[in-house]
Design brief:
- The protein is mostly beta strands.
- About 0% of the residues lie in helices and about 35% in strands.
- It is built from no helices and 13 strands.
- The chain has strands at about 15-20, 20-25, 30, 45, 50-55, 60, 65, 75, 80, 85, 90-95, 100-105, 110.
- The chain has a three-stranded antiparallel sheet, with no helix packed on it.
- A hairpin with a 6-residue loop joins strand 10 (about 85) and strand 11.
- The model has no long low-confidence stretch (mean pLDDT about 85).
Length: about 110
């Protein structure tokens, strides 16, 4: 069994060494062995599969979503690039090609 420490970001036990750094394959966090890690324990947003989302990620819509106040629909499989996480019920701010700026719920997307 490995004696590597758990990920300080998501507490995953599947960390591995890459040169002088440790890497978490679940959340992508990288840190140097022995380095003091300061984490922002603020906003934690997970997608429909439980993967941790961060600002700038690309996500894919997993369900047709009607746009409130119009006849437009965001189709399944639509890729949304460069998301921004915000507080609230609709916790993803983004721009979707052909529709414009809008907010999405993280439960209707998966990390691409």
């Amino acid at each position: 069994m490995s004696d590597l420490p758990n990920c300080p970001s998501c507490d995953s036990s599947y960390t591995y060494e890459d040169g002088s750094t440790l890497v978490c394959p679940e959340c992508g966090h990288e840190w140097i062995v022995g380095e003091v890690v300061e984490l922002d324990d603020g906003l934690v947003v997970k997608d429909a599969n439980g993967a941790l989302l961060t600002d700038g990620d690309t996500v894919t819509v997993i369900k047709d979503l009607k746009v409130k106040g119009s006849s437009l629909v965001v189709k399944v499989g639509t890729k949304v690039k460069n998301i921004r996480l915000v507080e609230g019920d609709h916790n993803i701010d983004c721009k979707i090609d052909g529709i414009g700026a809008m907010q999405l719920k993280s439960e209707f997307v998966k990390k691409a």
